[in-house]
UniProtKB/TrEMBL annotation, chain B:
Keywords: Hydrolase. It comes from the Bacteria. One of its GO terms (molecular function) is hydrolase activity. NCBIfam families: PRK10276.1 (NF007621). This is DNA polymerase V. Its EC number is 3.4.21.-.
């Protein structure tokens, strides 16, 4: 493998850190409520469906990722588990704060997800990386209250692996550095190959059949034949494990190619008026998202369907694409198209109505509006709608989301079908009316 | 990013510069589930808030800090990056409840004190570890009737 060795040499000195919040959503809740510090805490998904974040105390009780809440409700009650709906407003704000702290430690930060970021540490001398990571963890903890773990490696895949090691081996104090050759040699033969980022269940079975058990076993495979069974992704993982970077830091998020707004209803709906209001609300949200990035779409796909859990009831799944005369991000044009999609596909229910559980709007092939071609016939009135949309967006920025909505979309707090967050804590950091209270 | 901020300061008048406490972020990997719920942060002028990611607003409830000029329903701007010392006004967890008190350090004993002559001197003798949440940098008080408050 002379090629691989060469790349090894090229990448020597490169260091990437992956830092993530421990049980991030639960930790956000704990920052503002000291009573949660030592008790098990879980956070539920939309409509309070499943457990999506668990503290170590909750994990110890056997609560798994994705457990439906109705199945663990009794356990939670009996064992004193504190249960919360997702407070995404709070988590988004806390995520922004942690990333602001990260940027003081490295100017190159890729925000990978709401609670994970990659930092470029190549300019930090090898001997100082662990120290810097400890300082970073302590600073984030002190300033934002969020506990974190840091994994450092010559590549993203190794940084992710190092992060896993930092999380699961308490003696490391939350930091693991695989750019240190001794640590690299020590850990790679001790970690199960299943922990490698990007190795799915199907690949895992194939690897096990090939006798691959540890991460080191995978690293030492010849990448070329592997390409046949594990695709180019598997080949790339092997190079990354050898320290040859195949995945660069994405410092600027790629331009959005498609956009979707989909929601499960809080309860099943059967009426056309409610469905129309829901798709109009989704279209409103789609418009906001497109305008934020200066993009436009020339079509919307509207879908709605019954639940796969309602097997013994009439089932129906509808999807239709409505063309717009030209690219647009005008909420009113999007609503018109979305409602047309419903009108075109709505079927009056018979004796046993269809009970719809979810609706959504999807677009693909977004283009920057500033250089999209104009329609010769049926052009939308951009000159008038632009300032109107800008005014609506400005109102919503100033007085809160949903302050101004098209009547078709219904007032936000009258939308009975809206996703439920019944056990949500206050939006402590973004609403003056919901600030945390200190007793004096 | 930092350069832009300085440019902004140079062009506009410093009084007019308002920096949101925190910026919103787009994720490169996973789309953020928080995307549909992001709200503009509570804006405070930058010259009052030197360290936005560590700064939080709290609502005060109660009268025990009137001696320090902090009254019921005032807002406290709490900076978690400030080190608490003798005399600092702090927000701290006391018996599972968040409280605003004055930190008194006497030799190697730290205690939390009320600031109200009608109350006993100390709320907490012998402070444990990690109970101080943050240091109050300043407080905000409305001097108009409640009804007129924006």
């Amino acid at each position: 493998m002379p090629e691989a060795r060469q790349r090894d040499r090229i990448d020597r000195g490169r260091a990437v850190a992956l830092i993530d919040g421990n049980s991030f959503y639960c930790s956000c809740e704990r920052v503002f409520d000291p009573r949660l510090a030592t008790v098990p805490v879980i956070v539920l998904s939309n409509n309070d469906g499943c457990a999506i974040a668990r503290t170590s105390e909750a994990k110890a009780l056997g609560i798994r990722m994705g457990d439906p809440y109705f199945k663990i409700r009794d356990l939670c009650r009996a064992r004193g588990v504190r249960v919360f709906s997702s407070n995404y407003t709070l988590y988004g704000d806390m995520s922004g704060r942690t990333n602001t702290v990260y940027r003081q430690f490295s100017p190159q930060v890729e925000i990978y997800s709401i609670d994970e970021s990659f930092l470029n540490l190549s300019d930090v001398a090898p001997g100082l990386r662990v120290e810097l990571a400890r300082d970073l963890r302590a600073t984030v903890r002190a300033w934002t209250g969020i506990p974190t773990c840091v994994g450092i490696g010559p590549t993203k895949t190794l940084a992710k692996l190092a992060n896993h090691i930092a999380k699961t081996v308490p003696v490391l104090g939350g930091v693991c550095d695989l750019t240190d050759p001794a640590a690299y040699t020590h850990w790679l033969c001790r970690i199960d190959v299943a922990e490698v980022w990007g190795i799915g269940r199907a690949s895992l079975a194939k690897l096990q059949a090939m006798g691959v058990e540890s991460v080191a076993d995978l690293r030492d495979l010849d990448p070329r034949p592997v390409r046949k069974s594990l695709t180019v992704v598997g080949e790339r993982i092997i190079y990354e494990l050898r320290g040859a970077a195949c995945l660069p830091l994405e410092l600027v998020p790629a331009r959005r190619k498609g956009c979707a707004v989909t929601r499960s209803f809080s309860s099943r709906i059967t009426e056309r008026a409610v469905l129309e209001e829901a798709v109009a609300a989704h279209a409103t949200r789609l418009g906001e998202k497109l305008r934020r990035e200066g993009l436009g779409t020339d079509h919307v796909t509207v879908f709605y369907h019954t639940s796969e859990h309602d097997r013994d009831e009439p089932m129906r799944s509808v999807s239709t694409t409505v063309q717009l005369p030209e690219h647009s991000s005008d909420t009113l044009a999007l609503i018109k198209a979305a409602r047309h999609g419903v009108a075109r596909t709505w079927r009056e229910p018979g004796e046993r109505p269809w009970r719809y559980s979810k609706a959504g709007i999807v677009t693909n092939d977004l283009v920057p509006l500033s250089h999209s071609p104009r329609a010769l016939i049926g052009a939308l009135d951009r000159e008038r709608s632009g300032p109107l949309m800008a005014a609506i967006d400005a109102c919503n920025a100033r007085w809160g989301r949903g302050a101004v909505v098209p009547a078709r979309a219904g007032l936000v707090n009258r939308r009975d079908w809206n996703t439920k967050f019944e056990m949500r804590t206050p939006r402590y950091t973004t609403r003056v009316g919901e600030l945390p209270v200190a007793h004096a | 990013m930092h350069l832009n901020r300085i440019d902004g300061l140079l062009v506009g008048s410093p009084d007019a510069v308002r920096v949101p406490l925190i910026g919103q972020a787009l994720c490169a990997g996973f789309p953020s589930p928080a995307d549909d719920f992001l709200e503009g942060a509570l804006e405070l002028p930058r010259w009052l808030v030197p360290n936005p990611p560590a700064t939080f607003l709290w609502r005060i409830s109660g009268s025990s800090m009137e001696g320090a000029g902090i009254y019921d329903r005032d807002l406290a701007c709490v900076d978690r990056s400030l080190k608490a010392g003798h005399g600092s006004i702090v927000v701290a967890a006391i018996d599972g409840q968040m409280s605003c008190k004055r930190l008194v350090i006497d030799g190697n004993v730290a205690r939390l004190a009320f600031c109200n002559p009608d109350l006993p001197a100390f709320a907490v003798d012998e402070l444990g570890e990690g109970v101080i949440w943050g240091v109050v940098r300043f407080s905000i008080r409305w001097h108009v009737a409640r009804g007129q408050r924006a």
